[in-house]
Amino acid sequence: MPKTSTCLWFDRDPLEAAELYVSVFPNSRITAVTHYEKNSPMPEGAVLTVTFEIDGRSYTLLHGGPVFKLSPAASIVVHCKDQAEVDRYWQALSAVPQAEQCGWLQDRFGVSWQIVPERLFEMLLDPDAGKRRRTTDAFMKMKKFDLAALERAYAG
Known about the structure:
The chain is of the alpha/beta class and 156 residues long. Helices cover 31% and strands 28% of the residues. It has two domains: 1-69, Signal recognition particle alu RNA binding heterodimer, srp9/1 (2-Layer Sandwich); 70-156, 2,3-Dihydroxybiphenyl 1,2-Dioxygenase, domain 1, CATH 3.10.180. A hairpin with a 5-residue loop joins β6 and β7 (112-117). α4 (129-139) packs antiparallel against α5. The protein is elongated. The N and C termini lie far apart (43 Å). This is VOC family protein.
């Protein structure tokens, strides 16, 4: 199988963003930083790319300037084992309250994240359509997921 990775186009501050991400997630590290050379579209020495890993998955942030904008159409999903993890990642990353919906948030750099309890995926795969519907109805009204409220909706 080919190895794949994610590259996100940044208008500014890719190193600052990568430093935040590796501080938030355990088992993370910056693996490479490249810089613009002379006669480049950005000033010589400015950060061009930052590559980092979160739990063995590679991400690259490309400092390309204000040509393309990040979009919530692409997001990074964080699978959380419990409400404490949901709360911790939400607190560390959420910076745009008006962008919050159904477990989705946006950080101060414009990257969209989905902070999702693993249990939600189990609920949504239940063969009982009523349980799936109640769970979906409940999470559609949430910003940050509330696992206890999801469990109550699921149980009926």
